[in-house]
Amino acid sequence: MAVLHPQVPAWGAAAPAPPSGARLGRVVRVDRGLLTVVTAEGPARLPPDQRLRDGAAPAVGDWVAVVGERVAEVLPRRTALTRTVAGRTSAAQVLAANLDLVLVVDTLVEHARVRRVERFLAMAWGSGAVPLVVLTKADACADVEAAVAQVAEDAVGVDVLAVSAHTGAGLADLRARLAPGTTCAVVGPSGVGKSTLLNALAGHEAATTTEVRGDGRGRHTTTAAQLHVLPGGALLVDTPGLRELELADDEGLAAAFADVTDLLTGCRFRDCAHAGEPGCALGAAVDDGRLDPARYRAWRKLQAEAERTGLRRAERRRARGRAQRSR
Ligand SMILES: Nc1nc2c(ncn2[C@@H]2O[C@H](COP(=O)(O)OP(=O)(O)OP(=O)(O)O)[C@@H](O)[C@H]2O)c(=O)[nH]1
Ligand SMILES: [Zn+2]
């Protein structure tokens, strides 16, 4: 595990000023509610203040105000990677805060990757950070160039790198993009090699890895969200699995599907559901080959998902309002 030195670049370039009377800290690990915070005095395990519960809980990467031996306040976030907690409540959970770069990791050895990458890209764009696609296991892929090109086609405006943690191919290129003092996160489905990649970048065992199950579906092994310091001075967040990923809203979706979004203004009806109506610009683009039908279906699916999540969240707000009024 990465040892955090008091002078860790956890301070980065963009450290905010703490309120007067408080010390500045950065959350480097969240473990069952207990926080590991680095302050000028070094790392310490600190409990969050009572008020910092549920929706207001600090996340890895957060800048916080430390008063005495407690985390008193979360300072405003520049960017945040969120997901909707699975289940009926649909509260948005912040997985990592103040990120500059989100590495969307997938593998070159499976065919489902294009649709998965789209999904994680929507999440990455939604965070406010810049995404970068990293495709792993290049050593086990017969035609890396073709596989990269296939993903790049749908990753509009995002760079796509191929790497191998086993041979080291592509790692220098990736390292060059992880500038000192920047905070990065690794996201992607289980088993694609996130932990192995992190260890290769860190140059030591920074994360726990296990062999993927025989059925190829992988196993959820990373347990706590943690900020690692890389030898080059960049900070890397390793977050747990994220397999139940649901989109919290459609903000990132518009960016991840900029090509589709651009077409929408061409629909004849303003309330077009893009489901086969006459004059639908998306249907027309699919028909004349400008839009890949699979990408169109993926967009509709994610759009519907973001809408469902949004509706659930609105319902929850209403329920909260009712509860407050009846008090
Ligand atoms: N051939 C090859 N296999 C790799 C490479 N990187 C990782 N693997 C294998 O892929 C499997 C999964 O790797 P992990 O690093 O545990 O995957 P993960 O994404 O961290 O998985 P979770 O912790 O479940 O999210 C392991 O069996 C690794 O040995 C690589 O560059 N080449
Ligand atoms: Zn339409």
UniProtKB/TrEMBL annotation:
Keyword ATP-binding: no
EC number per UniProt: 3.6.1.-
GO cellular component: cytoplasm
UniProt keyword annotations, A-Z: Cytoplasm, GTP-binding, Hydrolase, Metal-binding, Nucleotide-binding, Ribosome biogenesis, RNA-binding, rRNA-binding, Zinc
Residues reported in the UniProt entry to bind GTP: 136-139, 188-196
Domain EngC GTPase: 97-243
Origin superkingdom: Bacteria
InterPro entries in UniProt: G_CP_dom, P-loop_NTPase, Ribosome_biogen_GTPase_RsgA, RsgA_GTPase_dom
Cofactors named for this entry: Zn(2+)
Cofactor remark from the record: Binds 1 zinc ion per subunit.
Enzyme type, top EC level: hydrolase
Location relative to the cell: Cytoplasm
GO biological process: ribosomal small subunit biogenesis
GO-annotated molecular function: GTP binding; GTPase activity; metal ion binding; rRNA binding
Name the UniProt record assigns to this protein: Small ribosomal subunit biogenesis GTPase RsgA
Species: Klenkia brasiliensis
